[in-house]
Design goal:
Elements (H helix, E strand, L loop, with lengths): L1 H5 L6 H10 L4 H13 L3 H14 L4 H15 L4 H14 L1
Helix pairs in contact: 2-3, 3-4, 3-5, 4-5, 4-6, 5-6
């Protein structure tokens, strides 16, 4: 999981945020932003962004869910963020 996130250009975060601000419906950009934030160790911000993509549904929902699982793996199963966001993820899915 960490290896998948490690190839992301974290310097793109401001551009991704600007793009998403201009086009809040753009879930592929939302997911890229979530991954970039995670690669930059901004795990809570990452999970917020990715959870929004899951909650919105659509074609990218599963990719966003998998990205959240990657973040859970990186921070660890007992981490408070994993515990809190796993519950929120389950709510968003069902």
């Amino acid at each position: 999981a960490a290896a998948r996130m490690g190839t992301i250009d974290v310097s793109a975060i401001p551009q991704l945020q600007a793009t998403l601000s201009a086009d809040p419906e753009n879930d592929p950009v939302r997911i890229e932003l979530g991954k970039a934030l995670a690669a930059n160790h901004q795990f809570e911000a990452s999970l917020d962004v990715l959870l929004e993509a899951v909650a919105r549904g659509g074609e990218t929902r599963d990719e966003a869910r998998k990205a959240m699982l990657d973040v859970f793996e990186v921070v660890g199963p007992e981490h408070e963020l994993t515990i809190a966001y796993r519950r929120r993820l389950a709510s968003a899915l069902f």
